[in-house]
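#onboarding

Welcome to the new folks! Below is a worked example of what a typical request in this channel looks like: someone posts a single protein sequence, and someone else replies with the predicted structure as tokens. Don't worry about understanding the tokens yet, we'll cover that in week two.

Example request:
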Amino acid sequence: MHPYSRTLRRRAMLTLTGLTVFALASLLFAGMTGSVRVPLAELPAALADLLHGQTSSLAATLLELRLSRAAVGFVTGAALSLAGVMMQALLRNPLADPYVLGISGGSAVGALGALLFMCAAWVVDAAAFGGAVIISAILYALARRDLRGGAAAEGGSSLLLLTGVILASACMAMVSLMLSIAPDSRLRSMIFWMIGDLAGAPLRLLPWVVLASALLFALRSARDMNVMALHAENAATLGVKVGLLRKSLFFASGLLTASAVTTAGSIGFVGLIVPHAIRFLVGPDHRVLIPAAALAGGAFLVLADALARTVIAPQQLPVGVVTALIGAPVFLYQLHRLRK
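Example response:
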């Protein structure tokens, strides 16, 4: 192996190891932090109790509740960040994020419609996922020719992006209509869902299955994504099945976005700033970028939620407010660095 290749491989392994440790540390920090703190000295005993299925102590009880919420935050953040990487590869636009094609708008219409009619929690989740699926199907029907052919042609990407923006605008109009006619008793929960909130989000297996499946697909397609990014016009002649790859990226990123939005509402900036930050750290190679972005996105949302729980404790902020307050200046800084 060439010495330069060994150096790159060693750097990638060190980066992924560091991000894994950082992600685990963020989960432990979230478990310890809150209006009632878990002292560091009591953490080993509380973890041992949890491993043995016991919650007899206050520290173990608090840790169990907070780690469940942190796990939901991690899988949501990782899904949004991975969807952002896929969307940027699909559209060949570093400013693309998981919400740019209107899939989250479809989820919002479904979820807020269910909340407006005071449906059960599982109906709200089903309506949110169904809305995302419907918008994805409409978008695919309108742009399937661009996804199928032309490889990564700039015009096809622009048309797909424009179609998604129009669908997102239509969904936001329907959301505004529902918010304007909603009674005051339901308005608060609807707004919290729109902003994005992890309070009360259940820990379920399905988001983890979706994340693991999408991550496996992305890692298997990483080399083809590199070729498509570097040699867009000649990718097909280099052996990449561009039409199949573009359709797969579209459906995988849409499924990740639908899963994340159904779980925690519309949480912004995670799928935009985290892939950018990781590119500055590890470079554009998708073989490293994909797992690194998933780890960093999960850890970022876990820490943002810990901040949302503690900054004005015992009152809690929606985590979407915290990600927006952090994400806007960070993204402006990234744009400045990118321009320089």
